[in-house]
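Schema walkthrough. Field components (list of strings):
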Amino acid sequence: MDSYDTSESTPRHSASSRLKDYFIGATPLQKRLESVRKLTSFIPTPPRRKIPQCSQLQEDNDPQKVAFLLHKQWTLYSLTPLYKFSYTNLKEYSRLLSAFIAAEKQKGLAVEVGEDFNIKVTFSTLLGMKGTQRDSEAFLVQILSKSQLPYENREHKVLWTGWFCCIFGDSLLETVSEDFTCVPLFLANGAETNTAIVGTWFQKTFDCYFSPLAINAFNLSWMAAMWTACKMDQYMAATEFLWSVPCSPQSLDISYAIHPEDAKALWDSVHKTPGEVTQEEVDLFMDCLYSHFHRHFKIHLSATRLVRVSTSVASAHTDGKIKILCHKYLIGVLAYLTELAIFQID
Amino acid sequence: MSVLRPLDKQPGLNTATILLVGTEDALLQQLADSMLKEDCASELKVHLARSLPLPSNVNRPRIDLIVFVVNLHSKYSLRNVEESLHHVDTTFFLGKVGFLITGAAKADIPARGPHGFSAAGREGHCSIHRNTVVRLARTYRSPLLFCDLEVEGFRATVAQRLVRMLQICAGHVPGVSALNLLSLLRSSENPALEDV
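Field assembly_structure (string):
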């Protein structure tokens, strides 16, 4: 384990320093063992990432079917691999989960599986929501309410939606055994109590662990750069940033909105390598914005904390809330979020 | 003189002076107070500065140790330190400079959440990646300390360490010099990563 074969690194990582080769050449398992051996946690920062492009698999994706995923605010959680989860038992899971929810709602009373209640739970798979063929299939859980009215076709109102996905989760897939299903990213929309109930059921049934995925300012600036780099035919919204100034007694918020075409022009002037985003480009992009703001307002935005980034592709908040606006780059956005979720699990 | 040099002044009798450079005024002040509370055979002097170069019209003692304080929550503090480093003479980096990083800690007490959902810690506030500062310390061949300066206990511990380092850098500990200390601190790191 002491010598790292630098020929393993792919041509695009022809970085000059051995430090980068050390992190990129090693497989994830080697990296994990190495960091355990040294009792330190090394956080490898990829010095460059791919700009989200339309992936091959997304061509099969029917825009209509995933339209309900867009324009909704999702709360993010990272999820450890599920033990003995099977895609063939989805009906069984929906019955068990609806019984559990009913039990939670009427604590203390006896519940039988199969009885008719006001709520219905459905499990379904989302086809096409994966980065590579090896990724686990994404699946969706919905809590629907059955209306009380005695019509023949009862309207089902969606009370809560949650979906699990894994996009380019190779680094996690390599290290888990066959019995586990890896769907590290969980997105929830709906009442917090329902999220907690569903989470508890999953934790009990599949021995996994949910934790809220917060996005720190460093990752938000990466997102801003990557999403500004995406080619868009038309811009639906301005590019907006929100900073929180730490001061007592109440923190101030600074909001900075730019015309999306200006942001893209700025990015194009900073961007050098086609198809990839590097750390230096992200830093330069953000520094340009900071110095422009400083010139006009004499405020150092770099001393404040970036809290929210909103572009025409998607908008993200540091508390772990995301809203995806563009169907074309859905997979790209989710790929980055999956990477953050996997990093949080490790 | 705009560049700080380690040996351009006479040392004071039994005096050791440390210069703390950083943008976080409140934290530097608290750290200075913690250091002055420590029991020390030598007389300690703590100077605080937002950035270098220091104003030249002030009469100040010889500086034995410079500690640059970077807050991971603020990119501005990193830029400030990077610019200040230009005003320090190269001979200072033979053991008389250190970097102190704050803001990396996770919150100790997880916030209550229903059914065991825990809230994310203060790492959610970081604007700078930890590796950036690690690389900075490696470039300048200087020791790197991590401490959450807002917590009283951790601050007292790092104040103790800094006082000890300061005594060595001022030459008050017989048999150990600043350069000795530097090589001792460096040998615990992974040799494969030394050469960046």
